[in-house]
Design a protein that fits this description.
about 10% strand; binds iron/sulfur cluster; binds FE2/S2 (inorganic) cluster
Length: about 375
């Protein structure tokens, strides 16, 4: 039973449909990245939704007005039915994007995905130095396979985005990462500093960069954006911990995105499963429409009525929506507090203290694994 507060449900027409559905098809993955955004408790293969259940989700998403589906994981190509799922999503009219490590792609499955109607691929890279990339991924020869995957994707005629997660153990090679994206024929590069949830939070002292390193990285990105205009688009995500105002996490709670876990839990973001006191609806028993418009969990932090001060009377309340609920919980134990990434937050001093992690020696990685993180 949930000890959920009473919330006001929106009137029909008051809430826009989600723009995108993040389909976490599986938590299985050959890589073990220490900043993985999956929860510490990973879903086992036996709990995964069936092919027919996923197809129903995609049909319901299209009927609801969702525009895009992101196939994610874990490693989505670890699902044997990935081509069938992409084909179904494309058939019902969704824009399809595959977010992959690339290590399971070969000529045949890449060509089959393209024929099934896949619109776009996001391929992750851990570093440009092969040995360090494999160390971060926790998988031998991963980097070599990713280089081959990039070629397969381009040869299949698919548009490519490189995803580069940056942190203190690869930030020095940001210029090389930008050159790699150009050399591999990517149209877009996402340079994303690690966000500290789940596994990344366990590894914060191994990953968190200094402010000076962040500033240098920002200058490099800005110079590259000017130099590569028309060649490569660079998206840039900075770590919240150095911000004065928080990000509008997921574009605001239950405003733009709906996340489905491998076992079928519907969530407003990938990290929400860690929040206590919620009855997350299951798409096995609840339609996507009822999840989006009717569930208490999706309505709890929607809009501004739930906000405490200083958000309630702040002129940014409909810009950042009070920041990230999961980060507020992580720092304060209460998801309804103002995100401490905001300099106005009453709990800001907790985040100030956490920044000290950048100054100490980097710790060993705790790699992502089934069964959760070992006690340290
Ligand atoms: Fe955003 Fe709240 Fe900070 Fe205002 S007080 S900037 S709404 S987090
Ligand atoms: Fe859950 Fe920000 S990650 S609201």
């Amino acid at each position: 039973m949930s000890d959920a507060p009473t919330v006001t449900r929106p009137a029909p027409g008051e809430i826009a449909p989600p723009l995108a559905l993040l389909a976490e098809l599986t938590h299985r993955c050959p890589l073990r990245c220490p900043y993985c955004s999956n929860p510490l408790e990973l879903d086992r293969a036996s709990r995964e939704l069936s092919t027919e259940e996923w197809k129903r989700v995609f049909s319901e998403a299209a009927a609801l007005g969702v525009l895009q589906v992101h196939f994610s994981g874990g490693e989505p190509t670890a699902r044997r039915d990935i081509v069938e799922l992409v084909a179904h999503a494309a058939k019902v009219g969704l824009y399809t994007n595959l977010i992959t490590s690339g290590v399971l792609l070969d000529h045949d499955n890449t060509a089959a995905l393209a024929s099934a109607g896949l619109d776009h691929v996001q391929l992750s890279f851990q570093d440009t130095d092969a040995a360090n990339a494999d160390r971060i991924a926790g998988l031998d020869k991963a980097h070599r396979k990713k280089l081959a995957a990039a070629k397969l994707i381009r040869d299949a005629g698919l548009p490519l985005t490189l995803n580069a997660v940056m942190h203190r153990q690869n930030l020095d090679r940001l210029p090389e990462m930008i050159e790699l994206a150009v050399a591999l024929g990517a149209q877009r590069l996402e340079v994303a500093h690690v966000q500290y949830y789940g596994w990344a939070l366990q590894n914060r002292r191994a990953l968190f960069p200094t402010y000076e390193a962040l500033e240098r990285a920002t200058e490099i990105v800005e110079a590259a954006r000017a130099r590569l205009k028309g060649v490569l688009t660079i998206d840039y995500v900075v770590p919240d911990y150095y911000a004065r105002r928080p990000k509008a996490c997921m574009g605001g709670w239950a405003r733009q995105f709906i996340n489905i876990s491998p076992a079928g839990k519907a969530l407003p973001c990938h990290a929400a499963e860690t929040l206590p006191g919620f009855d997350w609806p299951s798409i096995k028993t609840t339609s996507l429409r009822d999840v989006w418009y009717g569930s208490e969990a999706f309505n709890r932090y929607r809009g501004t009525a739930w906000m405490p001060e200083p958000c309630r009377s702040c002129d940014r309340r409909e810009i950042d929506w009070g920041g990230c609920r999961c980060q507020a919980f992580e720092f304060t134990g209460d998801a309804s507090r103002t995100d401490p990434a905001c300099a106005l937050a009453p709990d800001r001093s907790i985040l100030d203290a956490a920044r000290a992690d950048a100054l100490g020696p980097a710790t060993e990685f705790v790699y992502r694994q089934i069964g959760g993180a070992p006690a340290r």
